[in-house]
C-alpha cells in the first residue's frame, strides 16, 4: 500500500528545483511538496516568492509533513536540519555527501533511535542507483572492490583538458555555470567530494565506517598540460578515481588521479558522466554508467528515494553489523609523480622506480611507493607535485610481500 507523502523541501537550487520539476512530471507518486524553505530571500527563483519560507521550523514543526528532503549545500546547516527532522519523527532524503560522510555514526545512531528512514541515493554518483544496488542486490555476494568516477566536475575538466586547448580555470568556470560544481569548487578539484562519496560507498560495499581523515584524497588542481601530453602519447587517459578494494580483511581506499588504458572501465567515461565498477566474488565485474551531476539526473535519484519511502524502505546496513574489515595501513601503489621544480622529485621516497625523465623545467618518475606516505605533510606543503596512480591498481600489501614475510620469520 502506497503511503501518502507530504514533503518539506530544504533548498531550491540546482537539485531542489530539479526535484520540483521531476516530481510534477512523474505521475506515479502519491507525494507532494507542501513547503519549501530557502536561505536567501533576494535570490531569483523560478516560482513565485510566496511559495517560499525562510524559517526551517515552518517545516520541522509541521505535523502534516512526514518527509524532509534536504538539498542545501551547507553541510553544517544540513546536519542541523536532518537531526532535528529525525527527532520530530520525519523520514529524511538527502543528497549531502559531505554531511553524511562527516557524521556517519551519529546519523545512523539517531535515525535508529527515532525509528525513521534515512535515504541518500543521490549523494553518490547522482543518477546511478549504486547504493540501493549495493544494499539489496549485492547483499549475498562477497564484494572484492568498488571503484568509480564519482565526480562530474573533475571528469568534465579532465575530458576537456584532454580534448581542447582551453585552460583549467576556463573549463572549471563552465562546469560552475552548468551547475555541476560545488559552490566551493575546491571540494571537487581537490578530491574531497569524491572522497565523501567513496566513504558512503565503502559503508554499503563492505560495511565499514570510515572517517574523512582515514581516506587519502589527491585532486587534479596541479595537473599540467605536459602530464596530459604524457598520457596522450601513450594512448592513455587521466581520470579521477575513487577506489576501494578488500585484500583479506584489509580495505585499501583512496581518491586519486589515475592513468588508465583503454581496457579500464574509466577510459570511455567522459564529461560529467560518472561510472562505478563493482567487483564481486561470483558475478565478477559490473559497470554502471550515468550522469553524475546536474539538476534532473540528481533529482531523479532523490525522486527514487521518495518513491521508496512510500513502501517504508530503509537501508538495513547488514554488512555493517557483520563487518570485520579494517583500513589497510601498508599498501604499496604504483604512481606517476611529475613536477616543474625538478629538485623536488628527489625527495619522493620511491621503493622502486620503473621510468624516469628529467629536463630543466619538468621531470617525472613512475614507480612504487607506500600509500601512507602520500598523507605526509611533505606532499601538502609541495602541491607543485602532480601525483597520479598508474595502471590497473595492482595494489600490494607490504605485509604480504615475500621478502617482508621472510624478514619477519627470520
Ligand atoms: N559537484 C558534484 C560533482 C555534484 O561534480 O560530481 C554532484 O555530486
Textual characterization of the structure:
The chain contains 15 helices and 18 strands. 33% of the residues lie in helices and 26% in strands. The strands form 2 sheets. Strands 7, 8, 9, 10, 11, 12, 13, 14, 15, 16, 17 and 18 form a 12-stranded mixed beta sheet that branches. It is α/β, with parallel strands linked by helices and 410 residues long. The protein folds into 2 domains: 5-120, 3-Layer(aba) Sandwich (Rossmann fold); 132-295 and 324-400, Dihydrodipicolinate Reductase, domain 2 (2-Layer Sandwich), CATH 3.30.360.10. The protein binds L-homoserine (HSE). L-homoserine binds at residues 126, 151-153, 180-182, 188, 193, 292-293.
Quick structural gist:
The protein has 410 residues and is α/β, with parallel strands linked by helices. It has helices at 14-25, 57-60, 75-87, 97-102, 104-113, 130-136, 152-163, 168-177, 186-189, 192-206, 225-233, 295-309, 318-322, 377-381, 402-409; strands at residues 5-10, 31-37, 52-53, 67-70, 91-94, 118-119, 143-149, 216-217, 237-247, 250-260, 273-280, 284-291, 326-327, 331-339, 352-358, 363-370, 386-390, 396-397. It folds into 2 domains: 5-120, Rossmann fold (3-Layer(aba) Sandwich), CATH 3.40.50; 132-295 and 324-400, Dihydrodipicolinate Reductase, domain 2 (2-Layer Sandwich).
Amino acid at each position: 500500500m502506497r503511503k501518502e507523502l507530504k514533503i518539506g523541501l530544504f533548498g531550491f537550487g540546482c537539485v531542489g528545483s530539479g526535484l520540483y520539476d521531476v516530481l510534477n512530471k512523474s505521475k506515479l507518486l502519491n507525494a507532494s511538496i507542501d513547503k519549501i524553505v530557502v536561505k536567501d530571500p533576494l535570490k531569483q527563483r523560478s516560482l513565485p516568492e510566496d511559495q517560499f519560507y525562510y524559517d526551517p521550523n515552518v517545516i520541522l514543526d509541521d505535523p502534516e509533513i512526514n518527509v524532509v528532503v534536504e538539498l542545501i549545500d551547507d553541510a553544517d546547516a544540513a546536519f542541523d536540519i536532518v537531526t532535528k527532522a529525525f527527532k520530530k519523527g520525519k523520514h529524511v532524503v538527502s543528497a549531502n555527501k559531505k554531511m553524511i560522510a562527516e557524521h556517519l555514526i551519529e546519523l545512523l545512531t539517531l535515525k535508529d533511535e527515532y525509528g525513521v528512514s534515512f535515504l541518500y541515493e543521490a549523494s553518490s554518483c547522482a543518477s546511478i542507483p549504486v547504493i540501493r544496488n549495493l544494499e539489496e542486490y549485492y547483499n549475498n555476494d562477497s564484494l572484492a572492490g568498488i571503484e568509480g568516477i564519482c565526480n562530474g566536475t573533475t571528469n568534465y575538466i579532465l575530458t576537456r583538458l584532454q580534448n581542447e586547448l582551453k585552460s583549467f580555470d576556463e573549463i572549471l568556470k563552465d562546469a560552475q555555470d552548468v551547475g555541476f560544481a560545488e559552490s566551493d569548487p575546491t571540494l571537487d578539484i581537490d578530491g574531497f567530494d569524491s572522497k565523501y562519496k567513496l566513504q558512503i560507498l565503502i559503508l554499503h560495499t563492505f560495511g565499514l565506517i570510515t572517517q574523512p581523515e582515514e581516506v587519502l584524497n589527491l585532486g587534479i588542481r596541479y595537473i599540467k598540460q605536459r602530464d596530459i601530453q604524457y598520457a596522450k602519447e601513450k594512448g592513455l587517459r587521466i581520470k579521477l578515481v575513487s577506489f576501494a578494494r578488500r585484500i583479506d580483511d584489509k580495505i585499501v581506499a583512496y581518491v586519486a588521479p589515475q592513468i588508465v588504458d583503454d581496457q579500464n572501465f574509466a577510459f570511455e567515461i567522459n564529461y560529467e558522466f560518472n561510472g562505478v565498477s563493482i567487483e564481486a566474488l561470483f558475478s565478477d565485474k559490473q559497470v554502471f554508467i550515468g550522469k553524475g551531476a546536474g539538476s534532473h539526473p540528481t533529482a531523479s535519484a532523490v525522486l527514487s528515494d521518495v518513491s521508496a519511502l512510500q513502501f517504508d524502505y530503509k537501508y538495513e546496513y547488514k554488512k555493517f553489523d557483520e563487518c570485520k574489515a579494517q583500513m589497510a595501513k601498508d599498501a604499496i601503489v604504483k604512481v606517476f609523480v611529475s613536477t616543474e621544480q625538478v629538485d623536488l622529485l628527489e625527495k619522493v621516497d620511491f621503493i622502486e622506480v620503473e621510468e624516469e625523465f628529467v629536463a630543466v623545467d619538468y621531470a617525472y618518475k613512475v614507480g612504487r611507493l607506500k600509500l601512507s606516505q602520500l598523507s605526509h605533510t611533505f606532499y601538502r606543503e609541495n602541491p607543485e607535485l602532480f601525483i597520479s596512480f598508474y595502471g590497473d591498481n595492482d595494489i600490494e600489501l607490504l605485509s604480504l610481500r615475500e621478502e617482508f614475510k621472510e624478514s619477519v620469520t627470520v
